[in-house]
Amino acid sequence: NIMDKAVGSKIADYLIKPVNPNQVLLSIKKNVHQQQLVTEQTTADYRSEFGRLASSLQMAETFADWCTLYRRLTGWEIELETSSDTSIREVLAYQKSEANQAFSKFVRRNYYHWINRRSAETPVMSHTLMRNRIFPVAEENEKTTLLLIDNFRYDQWRAISSLLRGYYDVAQDDFYCAILPTATQYARNAIFAGLMPLAIDKLMPQKWLNDNEDGGKNQYEEEFLRRLMAQNGKTWKCTFDKLVRPEQGRRLVDNIRKVYDADFSVIVYNFLDILSHARTETDIIRELTEDEAAFRSLTRSWFEHSDLYTILKLLSERGHTVVITSDHGTIRVDNPVKVTGDRETSANLRYKTGRNLAYNSREVYEVQRPEDIQLPSGNLSSSYIFAYNTDFLVYNNDANRHIRYYRNTFQHGGISMEEMIVPYIVLKPKQ
Description:
By secondary structure, the chain is of the alpha/beta class. It folds into three domains: 2-115, no CATH class; 126-330 and 418-429, Alkaline Phosphatase, subunit A; 331-411, no CATH class. The chain contains 18 helices and 13 strands. It has helices spanning 2-8, 21-32, 34-59, 63-80, 86-116, 129-140, 154-161, 184-193, 197-203, 221-231, 246-254, 257-261, 271-281, 283-288, 292-304, 307-317, 399-406, 417-420, and strands at 144-149, 168-177, 238-243, 264-269, 321-325, 331-332, 335-339, 351-354, 364-367, 383-387, 391-395, 410-411, 421-429.
């Protein structure tokens, strides 16, 4: 009873009589020097792993190899985020940057073949995700909910996963590859249509808007999904909810019975995308998310107090299998790459499409014929360019002002592990 009270009162430690001097020393060390001891051990562990990571980087030849490497690098990023040794965090950041440079070359070599010549080594991609991964899960389980969180990265999944341990077991912790551009208009439409953007534009031209056209570019996702289900003979009772504003989340909690009743339910959650854009535009959000560790912390804090967390707890009680994924990730940019274009050129900082693009071809992944990678053309002479690693594309005119404004902001649309290697998580409710 005394021990229960003591532990319940959050004591720092306890000593057992007869007290041994070593026991006293160990308790003092644990409580006074814990941060230092953890930092020293974690630093030593990473140093011993550094060579193995470097070797894996040199040997990575498939998308699966890159997923494994990205998982390991992310794990170390999270392990070292509380370390007081800033130099070891800088070493890891450099190693991750090296990995992203090598990953960019890997994508440049293979992307055309992934899109046009599917083989055993072709990864599951945005336009094949539903058929290859999500429909089979829904087929095997009585109730399945797909939760697609816009702009959701693997490190953010790691940040919130412990909050779900009491409600779900992780049945699958995997990845898929987002198509280029890694932007909502392209990637999310491809997921729900089960088609590359060029095919959507050809088959349903009235439902596709190019970058230079005004209007909502993700208006038909539910229609795309129902069309894809019909083509694949899926007759499940289905619901589709897109949550953009906080009150929409509260409304879904109030109307959760419709999700209970569905065989297959889809919830698209836009909050993280809004948060990453707010970081660019709002000083206080910039301060709260000055680096990846802070962004993970804010993600966890948001999730813990969100309607989404409430929804997931309710679904676990009703035995729903939940698939958590995203349409693309995001990356913090810091290296400006100068380009020029006309008024019709797209505004995104990680990719550009337009007629009169001028750039250094060694600094970007250029696609002169968009149809080569199954992308539509805004004009007959349109091309695409994609930024690598932590680069961001700025126009020559007024470049310095744009560099100051956008440097150290989270952006998406280009080629990096964070944007293209997307988490795919299957959760089974605890019995």
